[in-house]
Amino acid sequence: AALSATVFGKDIYLTGGSTGSSGTVVNTVLKYNTLTPTISPSTNPNSMLETRNRHMTFVDPLTNRLYAVGGININFQNAVEFLDLDTPSGSWESANALNTATLASISGGLIGSLFHFVSSQTLQVLDISIP
């Protein structure tokens, strides 16, 4: 599985991961409504630009953008992409790539306009500026 879950308002966005015994990596985006409780494909585009497994997602509360960072598909990912959650018909957009492509199983947090994270693969702390 190794999907990522992020809370935004009353919803939990579930992104990426892998399926079945083959472990196929996916770019699916599902939204779990905690009030109803129901799970359905996101009304925004229901797929990210990149397939991702063992990645991290977070929401920037100033811009209401959902970010997907790092992970693995066939190789390690250094791609960063975001979705504007205020735009129902919006689409995933690419952001600046990270300095290293070995960013799987990452953890971190947003402080001001910088996202600080560490990767178990690189054992480094990196900062990316959120546009």
Could you characterize the architecture of this molecule?
The protein is an all-beta fold and 131 residues long. Helices cover 0% and strands 44% of the residues. It is built from no helices and 13 strands. The strands form 4 sheets. The protein has a 4-stranded antiparallel beta sheet, with no helix packed on it. A 4-stranded antiparallel beta sheet has the order 7-8-9-10, with no helix packed on it. Strand 1 and strand 2 form a beta hairpin. The radius of gyration is 14 Å and the shape is globular.
Key terms:
single chain, 131 residues, mainly beta, four-stranded antiparallel β-sheet, globular
* Count of β-strands: 13
Oligomer: single chain
Biggest sheet: strands side by side, in what order?
A: 1-2-5-6
The DSSP helix count reads 0
- How would the global form be characterised? globular
The percentage of residues in β strands lies in 35-45%
Instruction: State the major sheet.
Output: 4 strands, antiparallel
How are the secondary structure elements laid out?
Layout: E1 4-8, E2 11-15, E3 18-19, E4 24-25, E5 29-33, E6 38-41, E7 56-60, E8 65-69, E9 80-84, E10 93-94, E11 106-111, E12 114-119, E13 125-129
Antiparallel strand pairs: 1-2, 2-5, 3-4, 5-6, 7-8, 8-9, 9-10, 11-12, 12-13
How would you summarize what this structure contains?
By secondary structure, the protein is an all-beta fold. Helix content is 0%, strand content 44%.
